[in-house]
Amino acid sequence: MHLGIVHSNPQIRNPHERHERTHNAIPSTRYGRRRRARSPWHGCMLRRRGLLGLLGHSGGDRSPEQIKEAGEIVIGIFSDKAPFGYIDANGKPAGYDVVYGDRIAADLGVTAKYVPVDAAARTEVLASNKVDITLANFTVTPERAEKVDFANPYFKVSLGVVSPTSAEITDVSQLAGKTLIVTKGTTAEAYFEANHPEIKLQKYDQYSDAYQALEDGRGDAFSTDNTEVIAWAIQHPGFRVGIKSLGDTSYIAAAVKKGNTALLDWLNNELVELGQENFLN
């Protein structure tokens, strides 16, 4: 599976980029099976809004120069969504978004401070100046583009559906009258609400709770980005991704506060350079 810089999104402008790379490419990372034991971030970190409130005016509309002067960039990521953002066995942030975030920080000459966010709060933390950048596996949509500015996308996905192997869901028609687990504020929630009213949705704020509900049998299946459910199922015997691609192809990109053109332009130029050196291959 690959992740790569994608330059085909009409909402993204980058005058330096004229070619298109639509293959997938990602830096390799390792992640273990999610343990039931709480991570060191759990407890205080899962009270995200309380934590974010303590950060004050730490990001949002800061330019690259202001970030350099501060010596730190604040990046919103998931803490429970492997392989994009999760807590490793040592209690530290890990995943694709952390690899990307670390590189952004290094090229700015600053340190990276990672703040865990819920899916539904990814635009809010930018608007309220809680973070400089949201990575958090952020899918570009027209509705979100009205609230934040997306940089050039670097990953493409579609939806997937994972279910127990003993009652595998291989077609969306099998979900009629059944309970599908989704995470609030995600493209999976929006897709099923718009296209499949016959399916009962069971919604959770956090990915970890959604997966736990699936393991506990509180729902018949769980849907989110296909890359994630495929990775999760590999680590969890007894579950299988019966629907590997559903809905339109979506693009994932870093986002900045609406109107922060200085940081947006810096990110787009950074992606051009990373593409030239195959960092994301």
Order of helices and strands: HHEEEEHEHEHEEEHEHEHEEH
Class per helix and strand makeup: alpha/beta
By oligomeric state, this entry counts as: single chain
**Measured distance between first and last alpha carbons:** 10 Å
Question: Helix fraction?
Answer: 25-40%
Which strand order do you get reading across the main beta sheet? Answer: 10-9-11-8-12
Average pLDDT confidence is 84
Task: Give a description of the structure.
The strands form four sheets. The protein has a five-stranded mixed beta sheet with strand order 10-9-11-8-12, sandwiched between helices. It has nine helices and 13 strands. Strand 2 and strand 3 (85-87) form a beta hairpin. With 281 residues, the chain is α/β, with parallel strands linked by helices. Mean pLDDT is 84; it is low at 1-57. It starts with 47 loop residues before the first helix and ends in a 5-residue tail after the last helix. The longest helix has 16 residues, at 261-276.
